[in-house]
Design a protein that fits this description.
Low-confidence stretches: none
Structural class: alpha+beta
Shape: elongated
Number of strands: 6
Mean pLDDT: 89
Distance between the termini: 31 Å
Oligomer: single chain
Order of helices and strands: HHEEEEEE
Strand content: 15-25%
Length: about 130
């Protein structure tokens, strides 16, 4: 990614036209637009989504779901045990399945580095944890 280099930029920042000072408006180049588009597309695709012209919330979903860690374990409709790389501090873990917050003691249990879900994850399910360290 890069800042704008279009004609009329001021310190690589966009500028509005100013007739009094003869400052032209910043030219928005196809290179800059394509770079921004591909940066956004990479975030959406990296979250496991398929691009959809009908869904204008895909970037928000991708950023909201950005995991700190994906628990390790087979997602096959049978397994409900997954392993974290390290044990999170007590009470500082958020666990999500398909973007939905899970409630500890109801939807899953945590014992050191082992997450056990109340029901097996189905093929195609996506899960992630966010462990807060402060």
């Amino acid at each position: 990614m890069d800042r704008t280099n279009g004609a009329g930029h001021v310190g690589h920042m966009f500028a509005a036209e100013n007739v009094a000072t003869l400052q032209p408006p910043t030219e928005i180049t196809q290179e800059w637009l394509n770079a921004v588009q591909e940066e956004i597309v990479a975030v959406v695709l990296g979250s496991g989504q398929v691009l959809s012209a009908l869904d204008s919330s895909q970037l928000w979903k991708a950023v909201r779901l950005a995991p700190a860690e994906i628990p390790v374990g087979v997602i096959d409709g049978l397994n409900s045990t997954f392993t974290l790389s390290s044990a999170p501090k007590s009470g500082l873990l958020s666990y999500f399945i398909n973007g939905l917050f899970q409630i500890e003691g109801v939807d899953y249990t945590l014992s050191a580095t082992i997450i056990t879900t109340s029901s097996p994850l189905a093929i195609g399910d996506v899960h992630a944890v966010q462990a807060y360290r402060y």
